[in-house]
Amino acid sequence: MRSTVKYLFDRIFGAIGLAIAAPFMLFISIAIRLGSGSPVLYKQKRAGKEGRIFVIYKFRTMHPNDGANTISVRNDPRITKEGKFLRKWKLDELPELYNVLIGDMSFVGPRPDVPGYAENLSPAERSILSLRPGITGPATLKYLDEETILAGVPDPQEYNDRVIFPDKVRINLRYLEQYSLLEDLKIIIYTLIRKKIEEY
Predict the structure, then answer these.
(1) Rounded distance between C-alpha atoms, residue 93 and residue 136, angstroms
(2) How far apart are CA 133 and CA 73, in angstroms?
(3) Does residue 10 contact residue 94 with C-beta atoms inside 8 Å?
(4) Hey, how many other C-beta atoms are within 10 angstroms of the C-beta on 188?
């Protein structure tokens, strides 16, 4: 029942959100095109519900052909001038509303990882793959300053894999256990006002 409510919520408000965001997305597209050329959108394969691969859509925030490494840090030289602004306010993720509308993603859930990370999950942890990945979630709110954290360690990739990724898995498992529509609404509101969750 709760999965049906979540699914209907995502479809309805995904369509409404996309309609409201359309004028802003047009303006952002023009700004990216004028600032750093084409392409405007960044497309990447991610692992979704049950580990199925889908294509995620975001506004491009790095210089063309500079997005091979999925780990980015604060003041990363690959990030464009307009990209810094978009990433600060998470506006680069507005195209993900389309992913929500077509059922690849949810408003709230674990952030979708690049293929390969799901293979590192234990059998017990793989239950989080029963969730559609989200635009935001409790793990996202805890790590709002993730790029700053990674900029302060010697090896960002190693720190992400050893510390941040396991902690996000723990948070997402807890979210799975205590999901409710009210919890999702709280997480969405916290995301809009940029309120960090210190612990979950």
Answers:
(1) 10
(2) 22
(3) no
(4) 16
Q: Determine, yes or no, domain membership for 198.
A: no
Residues with Cβ < 8 Å from 122, sequence gap 6 or more?
A: none
Rounded CA-CA distance 55/99 in Å is 8
Structure confidence at residue 107 as a pLDDT band (50, 70, 90): very high
Cβ–Cβ under 8 Å, residues 11 and 98: no
pLDDT tens-digit series, residues 137-184: 999 999 999 999 999 999 999 999 999 999 999 999 999 999 999 999
Which DSSP helix (H) or strand (E) runs through 121? none
**Short-list 140, 137, 141, 143, CA closest to 109:** 137
Two tokens, residue 156? 């960002």
Give, as one character, the DSSP assignment of residue 44. E
Domain that holds residue 111: 2-192
How do beta strands 41-47 and 53-59 pair?
A: antiparallel
3-class DSSP assignment, residue 163: helix
Q: Is residue 197 part of a domain?
A: no
Q: Give the 3-state secondary structure of residue 43.
A: strand
Q: Tell me the per-residue pLDDT of 73-106, one tens digit each, with 9 for 90 and over.
A: 888 899 999 999 999 999 999 999 999 999 999 9
